[in-house]
Amino acid sequence: MFDPLLHQTVRSKLMSILIANDAIPFKALKESLAVTDGNLSSHLSKLEKESYVLIEKTFEGKRPKTIVHIAPKGRESFDRYIEALKQFIEDN
Amino acid sequence: MFDPLLHQTVRSKLMSILIANDAIPFKALKESLAVTDGNLSSHLSKLEKESYVLIEKTFEGKRPKTIVHIAPKGRESFDRYIEALKQFIEDN
DNA sequence: CAAAGTACTTTGTCTTGCAAAGTATATCTT
DNA sequence: AAGATATACTTTGCAAGACAAAGTACTTTG
């Protein structure tokens, strides 16, 4: 079956953006996905817990800045997920 | 975004099977999906509520037999879903 | 005719997904 | 300079989802 962590509307798109960007700030991610802060925060925690992403805490001047990176396991899982989708589409 | 009713492990596969078969008994569907009766029943109810599937109640001899059909709206939505997945894959 | 099987559905429970509210600090306004 | 507003998130609360276990209504079998 599909990776349940990735087979979800917000997270599949989120990971897709990460693959394309490698490092993206929280705010930019939030805007791309058109989700609320809280929603994004909880999705990121879930992905972080499984080492799909890496959360880097920095500062921009004096304000906190969270940068999201894709982690090796995330990249591998996403690749596998895409392969699974391809297979699924071929069969349909 | 992806149709939330279809972007779920059990239901995407379920609909895929329905597209291929058009009419399939509850039991066969259950075995194909490797889910419990209760789980399948609730997924079907959800799909029926949105007119994605049609549930036909018949008898096989004296035993009840539930046959699941794909409904027009289900077919259209699934087609759209597959197109969305294709687009998603192309971008990745 | 009692026990076991068949074909489901309903109920209960744990997990998600989400927005609203909260936290902490920074910047603007008057 | 104090209060108001903004920024950048995280935590909390709750409604909806996913699933298995238990329930329902028979039928078949020993």
Describe this structure in words.
2 copies of one chain form a homodimer. With 92 residues, chain A is α+β, with helices and mostly antiparallel strands. The first copy, chain A, has a single domain, classed as Arc Repressor Mutant, subunit A (Orthogonal Bundle), CATH 1.10.10.10. Helices cover 58% and strands 21% of the residues of chain A. The first copy, chain A, contains 4 helices and 3 strands; from the N terminus they run H-E-H-H-E-E-H. Chain A has a 3-stranded antiparallel β-sheet with strand order 1-3-2. Chain A is elongated and about 50 Å long. The two termini of chain A are 15 Å apart. The model of chain A has no long low-confidence stretch (mean pLDDT 94). Chains A and B meet through helix 1 and helix 4 of A and helix 1 and helix 4 of B. Chain A binds a DNA duplex (30 and 30 nucleotides) through helix 2, helix 3 and strand 3.
What labels describe this entry?
92 residues; homodimer; alpha+beta; 21% strand; 4 helices; DNA-binding
